[in-house]
Design brief:
Blueprint lengths: L6 H18 L11 H25 L38 E2 L10 E2 L9 H7 L2 H4 L14 E3 L2 E3 L1 E4 L12 E4 L5 H18 L5 E4 L2 H10 L20 H7 L6 E6 L5 H14 L6 E9 L5 E4 L12 E8 L5 E2 L2 E3 L4 E3 L6 E5 L13 E3 L2 E3 L2 E9 L24 E4 L7 E4 L8 H10 L1
Parallel strand pairs: 7-19, 8-20
Antiparallel strand pairs: 1-2, 3-4, 5-6, 6-15, 8-9, 9-18, 10-16, 11-15, 11-18, 12-17, 13-14, 13-16, 19-20
Amino acid sequence: MGKPQNRKLQKQYQKEQSAAKKLKGTSVKSPKEPGLVFKIFKVILLMALPVLFGVFGLIMFPITNGANGNTTLTESSTSERSTEGYCVGEDCPQGKEPTIKPSQHDERTPITLQRKDKSSSTSDLDSDVPPEVRDFKATILDHLSIQDVVVDDRKVQAVELTSEEGRKGAATRVYQYDGFLSDRECEGLKRVHQRHVAETSEQDAIICFDGIHTLQKHLKDAGKNMQMSRKDFTEGTTCLNASMSSQLKSSFHWSHSTSFYPGESKFSKTFEDRIYQATGMLPSNGGKFQVTSYPRGIGYKTHTDCIVGYHDKRDRFATILVYLQDVEKGGETQFPELGISVTPKKGRAIVWNNMNSAGQCDPLSVHTAAKVEEGHKFIIQRWYYYKNFFQLGKRAGEPPIPSRNPGQPRVSCDEYEHGSCRWYDEWGYDHVTDYAAQKHSLL
């Protein structure tokens, strides 16, 4: 750079030069233009600043799970997110990605979480997935193959139930088998169920809801004038604490459900083989076996077993339900849109498809468990899925919250308009607020 051409600037420049000579005793040279190396370093520094700020932000403000400070949405943030909770193949938009566990009481489809780190390569994702999950091959169940079946040397005939009052165009078909289970089998299932309920009920159940509005509606039904808010739920859940649950147990009424899984008893193999012979439904597409008892005054509101408008094919294609004893009055399984009502009878099975052959939930499959007016109702049921997945039919780990004693049961009161309160001997994830939020946003 040369000397300034403007006279005022020249004088200023000369003064600076003279002052520099007096201070240092040396002449001051004109500043040089920045070199190429300096320019490159400056560009690199500017490009690196966003990364440096991002790292600083993660150190100062880590991603946490609400008030409890647990890191969320990562593969190994909690011990209960096991290898069984992975989606596979085409079901994962970004490849093999971690999932939240499905609800244990209904074994709904796992909800896939989007991985935060978009830079991970496919090979990195594959290496995180256990081989048995990565290599799992899903099977499709898109129809029923109904036929007669032999039980204890007796021919049990399949009968399709129809009604002229039913709406036309329904994809759902309902079939009935009288004597599908023997008296001995029915009595054995009832006995084990009642014993397990009695043992587990030595501890009061913790009562959970799907939100504060459902809790308020149930309190109103019970004639309780109590002011409740979200603060009454235990941290990270929509469950009441143990003391409040015990206080309200006499105000709520519920059915009782106990579950067993394939391979946990000899009967599970006998039962699923018989179902396959009668319906063609593959055991690998079946979930857990659930035994439910309904005391007087208890039923289940109108609902579908599949989710209407659900985009995922891993949903309940068909249901089999067997009555374990006669009911003196009430307890019918009613299909209002089909004009069908089935009376409970010991050993009687009903089978119906909830979805069409394309894997879409049929809204006309809605059904109701009528309230028991006299007596006691016992059933065993199993849901079969259109597209199976690795976790299906396997007993999964339970969530760490809410705080509870080992073996303490839960009561789930959700979907007030379509559900009822239900007691369970195992814990699912629907009451965990992080899971519910992700499920709602991703469905």
